[in-house]
Amino acid sequence: MKIADRIGHITGGGSDGWEIYYRTSAMIEAGERVLTLTIGEHDIRTDPSILEAMHRSAMAGNTGYAFGAGKQTLRAAIADRVEARTGVATSWRNVVVTPGGQAALFATHMALCDAGDTALHCDPYYATYPGTIRATGAHAVAVPTHSRDSFLPQEAEISARAAGAKTLLINTPNNPTGVVYDRATLEGIARAVRAHDLWLISDEVYDTQIWQGQHVSPRALPGMADRTIAVGSMSKSHAMTGSRLGWVVAPEEVAEAINTLATNTTYGVPAYIQDAALFALNQGAEFEERIAAPFRRRREIAMRVLEGSNAIRVIPSSGAMYVMLDIRATGMSGNEFANALLEAERIAVMPGESFGAAAAGHVRVALTIADELFEEAMVRLAGFAERQLP
């Protein structure tokens, strides 16, 4: 007997890219002090008021099956939020509630891709993107972006790989780079998508974490609402990562297909979590700004500490809870730098190579520890980098 080939196909037969994280976890369990800047996880957990709303709902008996695309009240609240932010008319019928953004990405690709299809995604990428695509039986094809372009996708690079493809997955604000795609970039993406008749899957889970510029959803561009599927989540905007509540906003035919898939996989999101999400959304923009504020501060700390460095070039970080650092001046790869930094300074960052070939020679820093500890980590990281210069 053997395991199904699709499992090996998901990983592509290679590393999952998280070796530094595993090594760091083992060091911490052994009692070592490590400043950990690896995972995009809030250091301040879910607000007690949200947990109290979840508790009230559960104690009221909302603990049974949650069959379907989600409670209409929650779907309507998500639709209203999306419409207010994008200006695109959005009905509750366009919304499917999912167990987190990751499930939304998987369900969307399952609904749009058949085995053997080609599905595009940008490189660098969040670590699960290629595996999510391959889990459907489709072939994941990376569209390279470049450090010199601040990792903004170029229309020509997309078009060069789009023949015969079904979908393109983008992510703005971006993990791992912290880059926010500007309107000109999105218009180029939209032209390529329309020219090659692609579905555009837009991962927008960091849309409340904008430090410079403006978040533009591609659904708002001319001719794009009917071919764009937007993915959102409560994880980043409301520090509800463990609650696993996300959503898909899509044309009704796609939403119905995703709901059919949910019936045969997740069976929906628990009602008491949906009620907590509805409560959280009703707290408004000021609440979301408070959740985002620590990452804005730490981004400013990183920019200040690293300004003028001869060893590090900071990729312009306009959003999300990360900064990407170009450390190629040291002569080291991202893997070499991250491992040496952990060994010498007990500071853990993610190698750029964990997120694809395009980010080789870079490291990703998560803005996810207290301000004073984060500044300490940045000062020590900068000093370490300077000492590596040839």
UniProtKB/TrEMBL annotation:
Residues 34-380 form the Aminotransferase class I/classII large domain. It comes from the Bacteria. Its cofactor is pyridoxal 5'-phosphate. It catalyses: L-aspartate + 2-oxoglutarate = oxaloacetate + L-glutamate. Keywords: Aminotransferase, Pyridoxal phosphate, Transferase. The keyword Transferase applies. Its EC number is 2.6.1.-. GO terms for molecular function: transaminase activity. InterPro entries: Aminotransferase_I/II_large, AspAT/PAT-like, NHTrfase_class1_PyrdxlP-BS, PyrdxlP-dep_Trfase, PyrdxlP-dep_Trfase_major. Belongs to the class-I pyridoxal-phosphate-dependent aminotransferase family. This is Aminotransferase. It comes from Acidimangrovimonas pyrenivorans.
